[in-house]
Amino acid sequence: WSIPKGELILTGSGHKSWISGLEFHPKGKMLATTSGDGTVKIWDILKTKCAMTFSEHTQAVWDCSFHDTGDFLASCSMDQTVKVWDTNSQRCRHTFRGHVDSINSVTFQPYSNNICTGSADKSVSIWDLRSGLCIQTFVGHTNAVGSVSFNIKGDCIVSTDADGVVKVWDVRMVGERLSIDLKVPVNDAKFDRSSRTIAAACDDGTVKIVDSGDGKVMGVLTGHEKAALALQIDPAGRFLISCGSDNSFRIWA
Fold it and tell me: Are 180 and 202 contacting, i.e. CB atoms less than 8 angstroms apart?
């Protein structure tokens, strides 16, 4: 789809079940998707075909994230593992184990070799790609963690859970900086470019805009008829895109 007009540019099929996550390659020519069929696919946008399929997960795959170089893709699964795929050799480079329940979200820390994960075991963890070890764990959620995301500097993480709690974690201090109870399950959250604002996609169909300093709700975007499931802010910070279980996506300016 084009932004901001929302015109369909390209469509395709290949997964055998629902698609749970997607991420553009840093150079924009490839798109990675994850699915309930247990596979991760990378699509060549220019050639409009699937370029790679990774199928070593044993259960549904929830999310994926490219390293800044585009040479590695991390994926997380209901099988309680994170796998890092080498996009050049098309092989699994690492498998991370340690969570004791489904891993629902994964993201690379900007400009580093660290990976952050959020799990149904209520924890948020950071892993070192080079050593394969868990180097930090943040505990404080009382329900399954659904999403994790870094701010642009990579020194803060925002995480969400099924109780409606949004937490901001300080990576350097290894502690909780802020906890916000939005009173409704939150499915996704992202920092804006300034890191002063957080957008949260909620089960009540709204996108709530929250001050990351004091946790106050600054605004509410309404329009989805069912749960808002995920959101993204464009790199220039001009648009916010949300998608929902009402089979729609919306572009907010």
Answer: no
Q: Could you give phi then psi for residue 184, rounded to 5 degrees?
A: -150, 140
Q: How many CB atoms lie within 10 A of CB 164?
A: 18
According to DSSP, the residues that pair with 94 across neighbouring strands are 84
Overall average pLDDT of the 90-102 stretch: 97
Token pair 């999403």: residue: 147
One-letter amino acid for residue 234 of the chain: D
pTM: 0.93
- 209: phi then psi, degrees, rounded to nearest 5: -100, 120
Mean pLDDT across the chain? 96
Q: What is the pLDDT of residue 236?
A: 87
Predicted confidence (pLDDT) at residue 180 exceeds the cutoff of 90:
yes
Query: How far is the C-alpha of 185 from the C-alpha of 105, rounded, in Å?
Result: 16
Angle, vertex CA 129, rays to CA 176 and CA 177, nearest 5: 10
Query: What backbone phi and psi angles, to 5 degrees, belong to 60?
Result: -55, 140
Longest dimension (CA), the chain: 47
